[in-house]
Amino acid sequence: MYRNVKYIIDKYGNHPAFYRYKTKTGSSLPMFYVYDSYITGPEHWASLLTTSGSRSIRNSPYDALFIALLVEDKHKYDILQSGFNGIYTYFATNGFTYGSSYENWAKIKLFCDHFQLLFIPSVGPGYIDTSIRPWNTQNTRNRINGKYYETALNLALQAHPSVISITSFNEWHEGTQIERAVPKRTSKRVYLDYRPHKPGLYLELTRKWSEKYSKERATYALERQQPVS
């Protein structure tokens, strides 16, 4: 992990498109989302992510914001012990995990606020992965012509999150893409499109809710003296 972070920052860190998040202290740090972070024990993460760790990355040129995946409720305290800077929920299926269940976002946000962690709920336009996992029909979530996406975005905003992540831009095989889509069929697959709506429906919805989030976030960030970028 250390080698990967070092490589990424050394190679791309000065590029104008390299994302950095402005912290409360005024620092602009890279942000790394760590998928399946719970598989590695907190004592191993702590060696890298805490200031007293044996291979600490903190207060070095490679310091960054590391965001852990929250799957089960019990993972919260492992994430805290590990030295992560925040929590994200990743999955686009409401109800699939504790973290991806909308009804739990307010509680997760309270936990993050208490321990000064970033809370990053993940929203998606729907979910269908039966082309690669035919047995997984119970986790299919219909897009309902954009209503599923807007419901998720609305509930994410209500939690006053630090950031909102989107799952995903172009993960077609799990049916979570929001990029422009036109009808397409191959011998093995029919690709989902957004008819009767325009090909750019989900990009338009993303812009609409991004603008709403930016305005609301600026308001509550000002109230709590939090950064707005």
Nutshell version of this structure?
Pfam families: Glyco_hydro_99 (PF16317). The chain has helices at 2-12, 42-49, 75-82, 105-114, 147-158, 201-224; strands spanning 21-22, 28-29, 31-34, 65-69, 86-88, 118-120, 122-123, 165-166, 184-185, 190-191.
Structural notes for this entry:
There is one protein chain. The chain is an alpha/beta fold and 229 residues long. It has six helices and ten strands, in the order H-E-E-E-H-E-H-E-H-E-E-H-E-E-E-H. The strands form four sheets. The chain has a four-stranded parallel sheet with strand order 3-4-5-6, covered by helices on one side. Strands 1-2 form a two-stranded antiparallel sheet. Helix 3 (75-82) links the parallel strand 4 (65-69) and strand 5 (86-88). Helix 2 packs parallel to helix 3 (75-82) and helix 5 (147-158) packs parallel to helix 6 (201-224).
